[in-house]
Specification:
With 176 residues, the chain is mainly β. It has helices at 74-78, 170-175, and strands at residues 7-19, 22-23, 37-42, 52-60, 64-69, 86-98, 104-121, 133-146, 149-155, 160-163, 166-167. Strand 10 (160-163) and strand 11 (166-167) form a beta hairpin.
C-alpha cells in the first residue's frame, strides 16, 4: 500500500469484535490492553552511575482488555465461561491519507486475543437508554497484524514473543 512515511494515520474508520468467529454485540469503543514489560531496578553495580530499569525480555505484566456492551446481552454472559479459553478478534479498517496523492487509503488491523473473563459489569438499566455493561478479559495471548503483516505476538503460556516476525526469545529458550 505504500511506504508508511508517505501515509498519514487518521482514524479507525470502523471495527467489529468477534468471539470464536461470531460477531458479538458491543458498543462503539473498546479499551485496548496495555503492554507493560516487567522491569527490575538495577543499582549499585560497579561502573554504573545510578539506577537503571532493566527490562526482563519477554515478560509482561498482567493486562486486561475491556469489551463494552450497549445492553445486557447473551454474548456478555457467554464470554464468562472460564472453563474454556476465550478467543476474541478485533478487526478494524484504519484510515490513512497518502501524502503524495492526497487519496484516502485503508489498512486492515487485526488483533487476536486469548484469555479469561475476570470481571462482568452488568451496567445500568435506564428507560430509553443504554446499559453500558462491560467485561474485562485477562489476556494470555495477543497477536497484532497490520495490513496483512504480523507485527507482534505475545503468548505468555508458551513463552513466545515475536516482533516484526523475529523470535525475540529464541536465544533465551535455547539456553534453558
Amino acid at each position: 500500500m505504500g511506504n508508511i512515511g508517505n501515509m498519514v494515520p487518521e482514524l479507525y474508520n470502523n471495527y467489529n469484535v468477534y468471539s470464536a468467529g461470531k460477531l458479538i454485540g458491543v458498543t462503539g469503543e473498546t479499551e485496548m490492553p496495555e503492554l507493560e514489560q516487567l522491569t527490575e531496578t538495577i543499582e549499585g553495580a560497579a561502573g554504573v552511575g545510578g539506577e537503571i530499569e532493566a527490562v526482563a525480555t519477554g515478560h509482561f505484566a498482567s493486562s486486561k482488555i475491556t469489551i463494552p456492551f450497549a445492553i445486557l446481552h447473551e454474548d456478555q454472559m457467554s464470554l464468562m465461561n472460564t472453563g474454556t479459553v476465550l478467543e476474541l478478534t478485533l478487526r478494524s479498517a484504519a484510515q490513512f491519507t497518502d501524502r503524495t496523492t492526497g487519496a484516502t487509503k485503508n489498512k486492515g488491523i487485526v488483533i487476536a486475543l486469548r484469555g479469561k473473563c475476570t470481571k462482568n459489569t452488568l451496567g445500568t438499566m435506564k428507560r430509553g437508554g443504554k446499559g453500558e455493561g462491560e467485561i474485562e478479559v485477562e489476556w494470555t495471548y495477543i497477536k497484532i497484524t497490520i495490513d496483512g503483516t504480523d507485527r507482534l505476538l505475545i503468548d505468555k503460556l508458551n513463552f513466545k514473543y515475536e516482533v516484526d516476525g523475529k523470535d525475540v526469545l529464541a536465544d533465551i529458550r535455547s539456553l534453558i
